[in-house]
Specification:
Layout: E1 13-18, H1 23-26, E2 52-56, E3 62-67, E4 75-81, H2 95-102, H3 115-121, E5 130-134, E6 139-145, H4 150-165, H5 171-188, H6 191-203, H7 218-223, H8 226-236, E7 242-248, H9 252-263, E8 287-290, E9 302-305, H10 315-322
Parallel strand pairs: 1-9, 3-7
Antiparallel strand pairs: 1-8, 2-3, 4-6, 4-7, 5-6
């Protein structure tokens, strides 16, 4: 599954404006950097929710655990990876999403085609309770557990562990999956989606994001060898880029111990790569773009484009933003 943006109705027309500010005001705030395994609240005056247990493993993977008894006897697991289509090279366009598919197609401990069957035996329906999504800068694996007995919890943790760092990415399995990924690309080619693409290219002129739509490029999906998917997997699926979240009706101490046992031996297999440059904000005056595509509703968007503020989240920053 691909998650693009939280977009409103498809646009038939888009209108963009650039801020007119002194050059100093347009300079982006310095990006906040955190050491591996560090939660943002450790360097902010904002306090974290005391109902959530935040932690980190020695390998840099972070985790957050919350006990919640409604609905009784159930739980939700999420494995979040800070990597998406923005991290792809040109010859990998679409492979972050392709890799998400391969997470259900064979690992060291689970044969191809068996993962979904294992989950279904535990009562998890594929799609409803077992899913994943790929965005521009993140990939998320999702399991909603109907029970929190030891078998269900342990098996679910094992499967997410396999997705994190034990996938085989067999070339034959990759070829068998190509048709499914390409069918998603065809299904996504709707009037509304085409308008979104044009809107992104207009608003984010000269930047990387419009060139890295999560569905990727057809020629890459058809022809990319498995080694390119493996290359992406080994460089970007790293414990220091991962967060595991568990919420549900379970003992927090026991869950924390299980998370440590499941992910404690995760080690990166390739050197860390820097996040790719997203491109500078284009200096623009007022500009307009009309997009016409049969089947979309008429609408108008007015937008101001300015550099992002990636500084640490603090009380002062929130007050300034609100004002």
């Amino acid at each position: 599954m691909i998650r693009l943006l939280r977009a409103g109705p498809a646009l038939a027309a888009a209108f963009a404006l650039a801020f007119v500010q002194p050059a100093a005001a347009q300079a982006p705030a310095p990006a906040a950097t955190l050491a591996p395994g560090t939660w943002p609240q450790a360097v902010s005056d904002l306090k974290a929710d005391p109902a959530i247990r935040f932690g980190a493993l020695p390998n840099g993977m972070r985790y957050a655990i919350r006990k919640q008894t409604i609905p009784r006897g159930q739980a939700a697991f999420r494995l979040w990876i800070a990597a998406g289509s923005m991290m792809e090279r040109e010859d990998q366009a679409g492979l972050a999403h392709f890799l998400e598919h391969m997470a259900f197609n064979g690992s060291k401990a689970v044969k191809e085609g068996e993962m979904v069957k294992i989950l279904e035996r535990l009562g998890l329906a594929f799609g409803a309770d077992t899913n994943a999504s790929t965005g521009f800068s993140e990939t998320t694996y999702k399991l909603d557990l109907p029970r929190t007995d030891a078998e269900t919890v342990d098996t679910s943790l094992m499967l997410l562990r396999e997705a994190a760092f034990n996938l085989t990415i067999d070339p034959a399995a990759v070829d068998r999956e190509r048709g499914i990924v390409l069918s998603e690309e065809r299904a996504r080619d709707t009037p509304g989606y085409r308008v979104v693409i044009q809107r992104l290219n207009f608003l984010l002129k000269g930047q990387r994001l419009p060139t890295r739509l999560p569905i990727g490029k057809v020629e890459v999906l058809r022809n990319a060898p498995a080694r390119l998917i493996t290359d992406y997997y080994e460089h970007w699926y790293r414990p220091d880029r991962a967060v595991f979240v568990a919420v549900g009706d379970f003992d927090v101490d026991a869950m924390e111990a299980k998370i440590k046992a499941a992910f404690g031996d995760w080690r990166a297999r390739a050197p860390a790569l820097p996040d790719p440059a997203q491109g500078s904000i284009a200096q623009r005056t007022a500009a307009a773009r009309l997009v016409v595509d049969p089947g979309v509703t008429q609408s108008l968007q007015v937008a101001w484009v300015s550099p992002p503020d990636l500084s640490l989240d603090t009380t002062a920053k929130r007050r300034r933003d609100l004002i």
